[in-house]
Specification:
Elements lengths: L4 E4 L8 E7 L9 H16 L3 E7 L11 H5 L3 H15 L9 E5 L2 E3 L1 H7 L3 E5 L3 E3 L13 H8 L1 H10 L2 E2 L1 H7 L4 E3 L4 H10 L6 H12 L4 H11 L4 H13 L10
Parallel strand pairs: 2-3, 3-4, 4-6, 5-7, 6-9
Antiparallel strand pairs: 1-2, 7-8
Pfam families: ECH_1 (PF00378)
GO molecular function, one term: lyase activity
Family: Belongs to the enoyl-CoA hydratase/isomerase family.
Amino acid sequence: MAEFVTLELPEGDGARGVAVLRIARPPMNLLNVQVVREVAEAAAAVAAHPRVAALVVYGDERVFSAGDDVAELAALDADQAEAMAADVQSALGCLAKVPQPTVAAISGYCLGAGLELALGADRRVIGDNVKLGLPQIHAGLIPLAGIRRLSLLIGPGPAKDLVYTGRFVEPDEARALGLVDEVVAPDDVFAAALRWAERFTDGPGRALAAAKAVFEAGPHGLDRARGEWAGLFATEDRRIGTESYVADGPGSAVFVGR
């Protein structure tokens, strides 16, 4: 059983629903090696669950994650850091590997490794009092997993500014940069993220997973799109969707997620 992460899965039989992954290492949800591994294990469970249509990742009402557990990092030597780097890097990128749509519901602070984790989500919803940033440079370090994804998201110039300076970003700037997708009142963060996730409970799960795989393929996206597109012709949802589209127009299909 995980110590610092909880995972709520859809209840009942048959119906697809939204899973909720919560990080719970108070007071600031600092991400040490154990926590990021627990998050990655929970994400893998979501990926393998046939009735999860989407995933919300959340801390609590006060904080998403204030970042790296610097005290743990300070105790490492170079050999120990090298031995764990690949594992931690992969774990911080785990949300991008989940085939279902994912949304990070961000309250309070989302810093360092917390922001790197959130960058792997498909969408980021923040409260209008949130502070974001990658302050690892102030500890003589760099982000382990977030530099490339940040650069692709907001462009190399703004990404370099955030990484090199380690400065905090306020909500208005974060939205303008494209670092986040939605800014709401602090008390509405989880509800807004859940509303977005619930849009996919009746959606074509296989097609959504295929689209996400193409986005994640980066420069190989065209090749990946051909394979994913052709593969969808073997799914029940494609049959339902195309037949319904011809008969009744778009938006009329009742998908089954297969």
